[in-house]
Amino acid sequence: MLNRRADKLELLRIAEAVALEKSIDKELIIDSMESGIAKAAKSKFGSENDIMVQINRDNGDIGIFRKLIIVEKPMNLNIEIGLKEAINLSKENVEKKIGDEILQPLPSFDFGRIAAQTAKQVITYSVREAERERQYKDFVDKKDTILSGIVKRLEFGNVIVDLGGTEAIIQKSEMIPRENIKAGDRVKAYCLDVRREPRGQQIFLSRANHKFMEKLFIQEVPEIYDELIEIKSSSRDPGSRAKICVKAIDTSLDPVGACV
């Protein structure tokens, strides 16, 4: 599998396609492929070997190597090598000394069923983790802002919102009482928090928080957006009443504050 040119080029095409689809760095995809192939190579050459794989980013050539430490008297030939043997292995090792690491080229091989499955699992896991990290970084800076999405489903009183590629949750306690929301509705909500979780980032939204009202005022009132008027405080009984106090901070406006 790994010794045919078509397969090598296909690896690069797959990396580009996945990187584009998942909006993550192509280099991360290729790194995960190297890890997956290294995992499969260990099942071929022995798990006691320290295997490293290098994929040429231009032509897809795959190099499989065993890492060896130069020692005076090798005891474990899977991880150690004598200085003389290292020099015989490659002239590039002439300047190496005791304690240095060298790479011993290993022959390419065809994946067996188990090795191929192992490589696939490693690649899939690495891509999933990279995608989660990208999503977290995309949304962590959106905390304390208003987000808009489509209601995907309702679960035990909580609302799951599709933000476009990722999901957020409006917990029952953060909903406006008696508000009738159903799947397919477009909603706006205040981003309370973005957390890293083992299963990926968790985005918590609120439609009841008093900050939601303040952010809406900032969006809808030009004087507040332009910082001519400052919001001093706000309070809210969701679905019933709300109060917001503002103060003019531009000398051309009425300096007296007001509450509405």
Task: Find the CATH topology of the largest domain.
Answer: N Utilization Substance Protein A, Chain:P, domain 4
- Which of globular, elongated, flat, extended, rod-shaped describes the shape? elongated
Number of strands: 12
Proportion in helices:
25-40%
Number of helices: 6
The number of domains is 3
Order of helices and strands: HHEEEHEHEEEEEHHEEE
Which architecture name of the largest domain does CATH use?
2-Layer Sandwich
Q: Can you give a write-up of this model?
A:
By secondary structure, the protein is α+β, with helices and mostly antiparallel strands. The protein has 3 domains: 5-133, NusA, N-terminal domain (N Utilization Substance Protein A, Chain:P, domain 4), CATH 3.30.1480; 142-206, Beta Barrel (OB fold (Dihydrolipoamide Acetyltransferase, E2P)), CATH 2.40.50; 223-259, no CATH class. It has 6 helices and 12 strands. It has helices at 5-22, 26-45, 83-89, 113-140, 210-220, 222-225; strands at 51-55, 62-71, 80-82, 101-106, 146-155, 158-162, 167-170, 186-197, 200-206, 229-237, 241-248, 258-259. A 5-stranded mixed β-barrel has the order 5-6-7-9-8. Strands 1, 2, 3 and 4 form a 4-stranded mixed sheet that branches. Strand 8 and strand 9 form a beta hairpin. The longest helix is centred in the middle third of the chain and has 28 residues, at 113-140.
